[in-house]
Amino acid sequence: MNSSTDPVFEGVYGTYSITDHDRREVLGYRLALFTAAVAQAALLLQWHQLGGSSIWPWLLPLLVGVGLALRWIHIYLRPLHRTLQALWLVGCLGFALLLLRAGPTGMAEAVARDSRWIWAIGPFFAALAGIGFKEFFCFRRPEAIGVTLLLPIALLGRLSGLMGQELSAALLGLESALLLVLTLRKFPMEAGADVGDKSVFAYLEAQRHAPHL
């Protein structure tokens, strides 16, 4: 519900307000993405320092964080939004299959030993790279383009055999650091920056429900 104190903006297709509901969604998005960034960085650091047998507890906040971020992210194109959510779901199912086959303590070793597992879990990281692309497209942050490019380069390079495990891990480590920087830089921003032009959302929704002749 709009309040008389909500700021009013002039959009492409009319005026709109940023409400308390919008601000809660934006905070949820930022916290979810921050949680995922911390979990990914901790997972990779622990894998590097202590081995991969005990990294599995970090997977839950990583998977849930990205899932919630995709729940609250504001993307004008509904098909793109749904595609990223579908990739996230397929990737989560891939992680579940990996868990069933390798067990919680053997997941990292299984991926390191057989890079074909990237086919199963890769869609999750494609969804995360999609968030990075959205952030770069909207805000032109250099760390966002780093997230967008480094994830597929590291995983596809490893999958194709063109990249060794150490280089792939280094690129993923750099990507996780950039994602953490990206999330931290978002908190001081006004909520309206993440919401976008709500008149565009309203116009596209009206077009979607308009009768087709």
Give a brief outline of the structure:
This protein is mainly alpha-helical and about 210 residues long.
Short descriptors:
single chain, 213 residues, mainly alpha, elongated
Task: Walk me through this protein's architecture.
The protein is mainly alpha-helical. It has one domain (14-201). Helices cover 74% and strands 4% of the residues. The protein contains nine helices and two strands. It has helices at residues 20-50, 59-72, 78-102, 107-113, 117-139, 142-160, 165-186, 191-195, 198-209; strands at 8-11, 14-17. Strands 1-2 form a two-stranded antiparallel sheet. Strand 1 and strand 2 (14-17) form a beta hairpin. The radius of gyration is 19 Å and the shape is elongated. The mean pLDDT is 93.
